[in-house]
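Researcher: Structure for this, please.
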Amino acid sequence: MFNVNQQHPDWKFVIVCEGPFDAMAIDGVAVMHNEVSEQQADIIDSLGREVIVVADRDQAGSKLLRDAQEYGWSASFPVWQETCKDINEAVQKYGKLFVLQSIIDGKETSKLKIEIMRKKLHA
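Model: Predicted structure, token format:
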């Protein structure tokens, strides 16, 4: 895992993504691939925050969204996902504050809605 030690105790959310460049771009946590192990899930849950998963917009990202459902985490489907493959690309194009706000605004907690969006984005 990458960037876990940079999480501040007063933050409300922890944003989980696949790669380190995405995590650095928004001060999130990267699982370093498209799956979350049980050990990684325990570490993320131990932070005591709402978890928001932002998967890359590719076939591999589909597995990360399934893991979000399995662990009872939220997933985000921000408005820029139609034009950007991942968080880092979105931050370069739109800026960090816009990307962070759009991740929070695009947050979905319903497992059913996450499944529908997962299938739509990764078909």
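Researcher: Any notable elements?
Model: The first strand starts at residue 13 and ends at 17. The helical segments are 20-26, 38-46, 61-71, 87-94, 96-105, 111-121.
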